[in-house]
Amino acid sequence: MRLLFLAIVSFTLMAPTVAMSRPVSYPGGWTVMTMHEGLRNSAHVHYSPTAKTSLGYRFEYWPDKELTVHAFQINKLLKRWNKTESQANFYLKSGIGVSYSDFGQFDNKSGSSVFTGLAVDWEDRRRFISYENRLTEIDGIDDFFQQSTRIGWAPYQGDYGDLHTWLMLQIEHMSEADQDYTVTPLIRLFKDVHLIELGLNNHNKFLFNYVFRY
Amino acid sequence: MSKLISIFAILSILSTPAIAAHPKGTISAGVNGLVCDFCARALEKTFGREEAVETINVDLDNKIITIHLNAGHSLDDKTITQLIMDAGYDVTEINYEK
C-alpha cells in the first residue's frame, strides 16, 4: 500500500493538482490561496508553466492535531472536458515535504510527509459541483484520509468583470476526526483577480478563504 | 535631375499613407469551455503576449472571443487554435473579418 502511494506521488512528480478553486492556472500565471477552515489552516502558492501543471509551496496547520506541514506540491490537470455551456476537470494533486508535531506523544517530533489525491469538478455559469479526496501520510506521526464535496448555485449570471456570487454547500469527511462530518454553507464572491469565501460550519467554526490570481 | 528627384519624392509621400492605412484585422473564434471570468482572463493573458494582438474581447454569453490585430500583423488558424488550446480551451470555429 505504501509503495503504491509512493508510486503515485512519484508519478505526479515526474509527470509534471479542488473544491476551493482551480489548482492550475493559465500558462505563466501565479496563484496565492489562503484557507482558514474548521480543521485546517493552509496557504498554497503555485506557478503554472502550462495550463495543465502547477508547481508550488504548501503550508498547513492542523490545530486539533497540533501539526504543521511544509510541502512542495504539484497539481496536474489530467483531463478537461470543454463543452459549449460547461466545463469539467479531473486533477491529481500531490505533495512531499516535512511535518512537525506538538501533539501528545509526538511532542516536538518531525517527519517526512507525502500526500496525494484526486479532484473532479463540473460547472456551467450557474451551477457547480465538485469532489476531492486526499490521503496523507506523515512518517511516524500520523496518516489520514479526507474527502469533500461541494455543490453551488449562482443566483444571477454576471458578465465578464462583474461581481460574481455563488451560494455553496460543502460537506467534508475525515478519518479519525472527532467530528465525522463537517457541513459548511458558504458564499463565494469573485471579481477580477480576487475570490473570497465566507462560511460557518455545523460545529460553529468559521470558514474564510481568499484566492488571488495574477 | 532635380525633376526626377521631385517626382520620386512626391511618389514616396503619396505611397506613405497607403502603408499607414494597412487595415487592422479582426478575428473572431468560437470557444468551448468558456464558463467563467477565469476562463476569459486565461485567454486574455495568452493572446495578450502575442505581438500581433492589439486587444482581445471575450463574450461569455456567446462563447466568442474577438481578436483585434495590430496593423501589418496576422494570425493563422493553426496559431489561433494552438493559443486557445494552450490556454486550456477548445476552438469551434474561426472567422476572419476585414
Please, could you describe this protein's structure?
The complex is a heterodimer of chains A (214) and B (98). Chain A has one helix at 2-14; strands at residues 29-36, 41-50, 53-62, 67-82, 87-101, 109-123, 127-138, 142-153, 164-174, 181-191, 194-200, 206-213. With 214 residues, chain A is mainly beta. Chain A has one domain: monomeric porin ompg (Porin). Chain A is built from one helix and twelve strands; from the N terminus they run H-E-E-E-E-E-E-E-E-E-E-E-E. With 98 residues, chain B is of the alpha+beta class. Chain B has one domain: Alpha-Beta Plaits, CATH 3.30.70. Helix content of chain B is 42%, strand content 29%. Chain B has helices at residues 2-20, 37-48, 77-86; strands at 26-32, 53-59, 64-69, 90-97. In chain B, strands 2-3-1-4 form a four-stranded antiparallel β-sheet, covered by helices on one side. Chain B starts with a helix and ends with a strand. The model of chain B is unreliable at 13-22 (pLDDT under 50). Classes of the chains: A mainly beta (214), B alpha+beta (98).
Features:
heterodimer; A: mainly beta; Porin; 12-stranded antiparallel β-barrel; 1 helix; 12 strands; 63% strand; B: 98 residues; Alpha-Beta Plaits; 4-stranded antiparallel beta sheet; 3 helices
What is the compact description of this entry?
With 214 residues, chain A is mainly beta. Chain A contains one helix and twelve strands; from the N terminus they run H-E-E-E-E-E-E-E-E-E-E-E-E. Chain A starts with a helix and ends with a strand.
Layout of strands and helices, then pairs:
The complex is a heterodimer of chains A (214) and B (98).
Chain A: H1 2-14, E1 29-36, E2 41-50, E3 53-62, E4 67-82, E5 87-101, E6 109-123, E7 127-138, E8 142-153, E9 164-174, E10 181-191, E11 194-200, E12 206-213
Antiparallel strand pairs in A: 1-2, 1-12, 2-3, 3-4, 4-5, 5-6, 6-7, 7-8, 8-9, 9-10, 10-11, 11-12
Chain B: H1 2-20, E1 26-32, H2 37-48, E2 53-59, E3 64-69, H3 77-86, E4 90-97
Antiparallel strand pairs in B: 1-3, 1-4, 2-3
